Amino acid sequence: MEAYKIKNIAGQLAKSFLSNPLTPVLAVAILLLGYISLEVMPREEDPQIEVSGGSVIVAIPGATPSEINNVVIKPLERRIREIKGVEHVYSTAMNNFGMVNVQYYIGENRESSNLKLYDKVMQNMDQLPAGTMPPLVKPFDIDIDIPILTVAFYKIDNTPNRPEEISKLYKLIRDLQQNINALDNVSKTTLKGVKRPQFNVLIDLHKLSGYHLSLGQVAKAIKSISSNAPQIDTVSGSGKLVVFGVKNAIDDIDDLKELIVAQYMGSPIYLKNIAKVEYHFDIQNYRTAFITYQEGQKEAEYTENEKKEQEEKGLVFRDAGHQITMTVSKLKGTNAVHIAEAAIEEIQAAKKELLDHGIGFIVTRNYGERANEAVNELVHHLVITIFIIALILIPFLGWRESLVVTIAVPMILATTLFIALMTDQTINRITLFAFLLSLGLIVDDAIIVIENIHRRLHLKESEGLEFDEIIIQATDEIGPSTNIATIAIMLTMIPMAFVGGMMGQFMKPIPLNVPVALAVSLFVAYVFAPYLARKFIKFEKHESHEADVPEKVKELSEELDVKEEGRQ
Amino acid sequence: MEKIVYKILSTKRNKFIVIMIVLMAMGASVMMIPTKLILARMLPGKSANTFTIYVDTATNASIKETKMVTSCIVDIMTKEKEVTDMEVFLGQGAPLDYAGLVKGSALKSLKNQAEIVINLTDKHGRDEPSFAMVHRIRPIINEACGSLVENTSIRFTEMPSGPPTLATIVVELYGKNDEVLRETAINVAAILAETDGLVDIDIMQDDLYTKYDLVPDKEKIIRSGLSVDQVNQIIYLAFQGMPIAVKNTHNQQDQIPIFLRLDDKTRTVDFHTKEALLNKLSSLKLMNAKGMMVPLSEIIQLEAQLSSPTIFRKNLKNMVTITAECDMVSQVYPLLESRDKMIEKLWKKYEVTKKPGIDTFMFDLNLVDRKTGTKILLRWDGEMKVSLDTFRDLGGAFISALVLMFLLMVVYYKSFALSGIVLIGSFLSIVGVIAGHWVADKFSLFMTDVNFFLTATSLIGFISLMGISARSSLLLIDFAMSLIADTGMEKKRAIAIATATRAKPIMLTAVAIILGSLLLATDPIFGGLGVALIFGSMATTLVSLFFIPVLMDNARALMPDEYFMNQIKVKKGTWCVIADNVKSLFPPYKMRK
Question: In the list A85, A218, A317, B413, which could disulfide-bond B418, CB 3.0-4.6 Å?
Fold first, then answer.
């Protein structure tokens, strides 16, 4: 019999790796890289959608909507339309101000889009109508604007808010915010529902007219004593610096109360005579936040008995009144899981101090935890699915062959994951769905190779051949059609990358990862499947297998025998 | 196996029967879509651990009124045991999320706006999915709290399972005349409200309300030694108040402002009437340069007027937006229903014409007022537009995938007929995809009373199935061809043997896909993909084992031609001639070496 000539890349690969000592090293290295990638890659729940846009806000005090529309909005819209890549321009003309929201096509580069918008507005500054305040350009940024963690701080006891407490609470949380901002990869933290301390002077209109005073007078009187002046320095005779300055005349609430506003019939009128003066929070700010929570839900320290009591009591919701919500966002491409963990740790560390001041907190949003859960759940699904497939292959191929397939699959996934890490992708729901989807496709190549090796081992034709030789020939034989079939599947997935809009961006991990996984599956099927087959599958130098060869295979082999004879 | 296939192939009648069965199955399954046995939808709902309630009261509502509505909602929600905590954000949006990003949550700053974040217990330990809870609670809350303050709209916003949109159904009315737009918007909203399955209908425009203009009497102002500027400032200071000075402190990060305003008792106007306001203003006095006190009411006149509403524009045209959400149903059918109703009801007032042609704006209507001739464009946007865009793009992807595959096959086989067979085989997986969705829908309705929709992910499944079924057909054709070429076997027999031999790997890979997709099918979003893969690969297996052989038998190209046969004789000992041919055609293979 003439020596077998390898015709396909499949056989080449199989041959060069079959008895190569580096093959197992490579295999282990791939699995390790995959595992590291799984741990290192930034995790998030939904894939990044690059949305660029921003708003331009122009204020003209006292203008009506239709004025704003004609004077500001229309010219501004026309200018913004000149920018390339703008999909929609939304504008609103309200009393006193107008706003133009610009939305770029999905996928436009964010930095250059922001720059273009800013540039366009700045270029046309000279065309702004008189009385206009300088326009405000605010680009929006998903990463920075969508917080991954929100924590609500509230008072534990039901006492009414005393002004000192409000400022203390505010200060405490401000400090905490500072600490969290100092953590790595935290980009922006904000406080919502904040009440700032303030001196309120609430004037009684009747008393005012009773003393024949005008509002302007009162305002002037307060202004005149509360000015802040910079420090002054001069030099002493001996050349030393002497620093001094005028202190703000208002030091505390009593200074304000005792302020003489005017003289009436010879006697002084104090501010406290005509107004209620208090140290309180900013009452003009109507933006408030409240919290109501179910007691016993979030507190894990409850013992079994207490829990039971809780259940008997039924639903107990506590209206904790005012709250301050702290939001934490992350930088782009960083791991939400780690940042959320670090921030919560920071808050937990301050827990005792907060409790001392009667402040409790509830984590009201944790995208890090959710992303982690989603990813872990899907990884779990992947593992289960691999095992189910392996089990089902046993009756068809035998457990050794099935084991080969089971080992090949994680190697394919590991390589794909590593490539994803190298190409700056993140692990998210869609990436993992791409893996789940490709799972059904990538086992095929390995199955076909193993099945063919399995079949060839039982063929008469292989009699007298070395085990290695059979494996190489079997792999080589199915090479061309497997190549074509795999390329066909890759071709069906690739056009999906050209789907536009939000949905296209959302699904992008599928056309990015599935073809890669398929290409890798070919490689693994040609390199590692033969190697593993050599290690695992028991080979007996061919004796007669007639008895257990199935009917059709026997028939087929007879046919092949005929062919073989024809050749010789 | 071999016998069955051979039997089918041996008589014309049997072949005809197989073809007819396939054609009927194809027809029946495609018919399932227009007959609504299968409901199509972009993406299904997803159970989440949180949802947000948006509250918008009348444009001139006070913060107190808005708080009344939110407190009412919070009260009702405290009866739900799955709720862990609720955060009310008055006069501002809640911390931004994906849904809020496109719904303008970050821009909220008015007194009539509020958002309530409702956090629920973990979805794994909860029986009721969040969308079912919203479905149940929505009517209760709307009934109890919706009429506390006039013109209140309460909307429920769930975490979107895919990319977020402004609303599921968005109707945009474009026109030049604001009054006509306002009136039409109200009509359209009424029609949407009548449509089954549509909820949370909201017209995004300001309500008209009475406001009062203070008209300064120029002569009196100048004569009394005052200025308009002074009047403006004092009124603002008295009723709005402002920080007039600051005090620096040592122990705070911020300065402490000193805020001046009238106290609450004297600031409030007794009634919402012109007289009451004038009365109040008369007690506010201004001091002129000579130190004389002049009552404000002396130098101004009061005029009642309608408020000037905010003007919204999109792409340089005035626009009113009406939004609606779908209550656990697909958006397609309510949309079509309400559109038909609109054509019918708006007919009296407007000349309604449909937009000609097929594109992603194909549901648009052109309205022309019969009397005045004012033109209004009624455009459908929102999730429907995104769906149409996506389906269009996926359709395009699908067609280009078909073309690419066809070209690949033509290069491989050098025959259009064989490539056609592979293509037809791949296309037939649609039978399984649609039938599978019907089964899944019935099963899901039986188990959880929730519809199972044909979604965008089903389409992705369908596209990837094409590749899989192409692989099966390819293996079959390849094997049969090499049998004929190598052994000169009779065509029908060769096809039968090829089918029998290849049945095992074909079924094995199908089983692998089915099992691999089982867990996928239980996912709310990718369920469509899973179902498509499971039932699609079943159909594909049947098609490649019974239908493809019939087609192969009919194709002449399967038989090698004279020249080809001669070549085989020349190249004795070469195991796989076809592979050799392909190799010469595919430089990439050589390059890979």
Answer: B413
What whole-number distance in Å separates Cα of residue A318 and Cα of residue A295?
7
**Tokens describing residue A9:** 């890349």
Residue B154 in tokens:
């309460």
**Other beta carbons less than 10 A from residue A284's beta carbon:** 14
Beta pairing class for B210-216 and B300-306: antiparallel
How many whole angstroms from its chain centre is CA B320? 20
CA distance A493 to B400: 10
**pLDDT tens digits, chain B, 593 residues: what are they?**
667 777 777 777 777 777 777 788 777 777 776 666 666 666 666 777 888 899 888 888 888 888 888 888 888 888 888 888 888 898 888 888 877 877 878 778 888 888 998 888 887 777 777 888 888 888 888 888 888 888 888 888 887 777 777 888 888 888 888 888 888 888 888 888 888 888 888 888 888 888 888 888 888 888 887 888 888 888 888 888 888 887 766 555 567 888 888 887 788 887 778 888 888 888 888 777 777 778 888 888 888 888 888 888 888 888 888 888 887 777 777 788 888 888 888 777 778 877 776 666 777 788 887 777 788 888 888 777 777 787 788 788 778 878 887 888 788 777 777 788 888 777 777 788 888 888 877 777 776 666 677 777 787 788 778 777 777 787 788 778 777 777 777 777 788 888 887 787 788 778 878 877 777 777 777 778 888 888 888 888 888 888 888 877 777 666 655 445 555 444 433 344 444 444 444 444 434 43
- Tokens at A119, concatenated: 């540039």
**Residues B248-278, buried b or exposed e (16+ Cβ, 10 A)?**
eeeeeebbbbbbbbbbeebbeeeeeeeeebb
Name every chain B residue with its beta carbon within 8 A of the beta carbon of A145: 96, 101, 106
Give the Cα separation of B529 and B461 in Å (integer): 5
Q: Which residues of B touch A252 (CB under 8 A)?
A: none
Phi, psi of B365 (to 5 degrees): -125, 140
The reply to whether residue B467 touches residue A292, judged by beta carbons under 8 angstroms, is no
Q: Do B293 and A214 touch (CB under 8 A)?
A: yes
- Min distance B451 CA to chain A CA atoms (Å): 22
Q: Is A211 exposed, middle or buried (0-12, 13-18, 19+ CB in 10 A)?
A: middle
- Given B162, B487, B529, which is nearest A562 (Cβ)? B487
Q: How far apart are CA A79 and CA A67, in angstroms?
A: 18
Token pair of A565, please? 């004879």
Which residue from A minimizes the CA distance to B315?
A89
Q: Which helix (H) or strand (E) holds A325?
A: strand A317-330
CA A259 vs. chain centroid, Å, equals 54
Best of B508, B511, B520 to mutate (most A CBs within 10 Å, chain A): B508
Do B467 and A489 lie within an 8 Å CB cutoff?
yes
Among the partner-chain residues B247, B263, B386, the one whose CB lies closest to the CB of A501 is B386
Q: Please tell me the distance from the alpha carbon of residue B541 to that of residue B426, in angstroms, as a whole number.
A: 10
- Residues whose CB is less than 8 angstroms from the CB of residue B569 and which lie 6 or more positions away in sequence, other chains included: none
DSSP assignments along A204-226, one per residue: -HHHHHHTT--HHHHHHHHHHH-
Contacts of B464 in chain A (CB under 8 A): 437, 441, 489, 492-493, 514
Q: Report pTM.
A: 0.80
Asked if A491 lies within 8 A of B467 by C-beta distance, the reply is: yes
Cα(A320)–Cα(A323) distance, rounded to whole angstroms?
8
H helices of A258-303, where? 271-274
Phi, psi of A312 (to 5 degrees): -65, -35
Are A87 and A105 contacting, i.e. CB atoms less than 8 angstroms apart? yes
Is B84 close to A81, i.e. CB distance below 8 A?
no
**Nearest CA of chain B to the CA of A257: how many Å?**
12
